[in-house]
C-alpha cells in the first residue's frame, strides 16, 4: 500500500502506521524520526533543524524535500510505504505530487485521522519517549507508564519528555497544524484520495483503512 497519514500531532499516526506495516510489509516513513536522528548525529541538517523542532515550528521545505526524494527511492519502499507526518503544508503537498509523478508512484489513499484537541493535548503532555535511538519506545504517564519512573522498560535508558512536548510547545504545534496542515484535507479531497476517519482508537482507524482498500 502507498498511503499518506494526516492528523494533528498526537492523533496516533505513528501507531496506526506501525500496525499497517504488519499487513503487507510496507515501510513507515516518518520525517520526524529522520530529523531527530539527524539531530542526534549532529549532522548539518540536524543542527539546522533542531532549533525549529524544539520550538514546535515546521522545518523548512528545502530541508524536507531532499530527504523525501532520497528516501522514496530506497529499496525497502518498492513494496509500499506509509508517509507519517508528511506533507504538512500545501506547498509540500504540491511538491510531493510532482515528486511522485517524477518517480512514477501512485498513491492509494490519504487517511485523515480526526481526534479532538483536548484528547491530543492530554496524550502529548503525558507522553514519554526512550532516549535510546535504537529503541525509542513510547510510554504515557497515565495509560502506559514505565515500571520504574523515568526508565524505559525495554532497554533501561531514560524515558523523557521531548522538548517539543511541553505544554507551551504542544499548544504552538497544534496551532501551527490548524493553520498550515489542516487545509491538506481539502487539497487531497479534490484529488479524490481523502478518507477522514473519526476515532481515538488505533484499531478503529486501521480497520477503516483496511475496509477502504479492500484488505
In short:
It is built from 9 helices and 8 strands. It is an alpha/beta fold and 215 residues long.
Round the Cα radius of gyration to an integer and report it: 17 Å
Strands, total number: 8
For the record, the CATH architecture stands as 3-Layer(aba) Sandwich
Percent range of helical residues: 40-55%
Query: What gap, in angstroms, lies between the N and C termini?
Result: 10 Å
Percent of residues in beta strands?
15-25%
Mean pLDDT: 89
Strand order in space, largest sheet: 2-3-1-4-8
CATH top level assignment = Alpha Beta
Helix/strand structural class: alpha/beta
Which stretches are poorly predicted, pLDDT < 50 over at least 5 residues? none
Largest sheet: 5 strands, parallel
Total domains:
1
The gross shape turns out to be globular
Number of helices: 9
Query: Could you state the order of secondary-structure elements as H and E?
Result: EHEHHHEHEHEEEHHEH
Pfam family, one: ADK_lid
GO biological process, one term: AMP salvage
Main location: cytoplasm
Protein name: Adenylate kinase
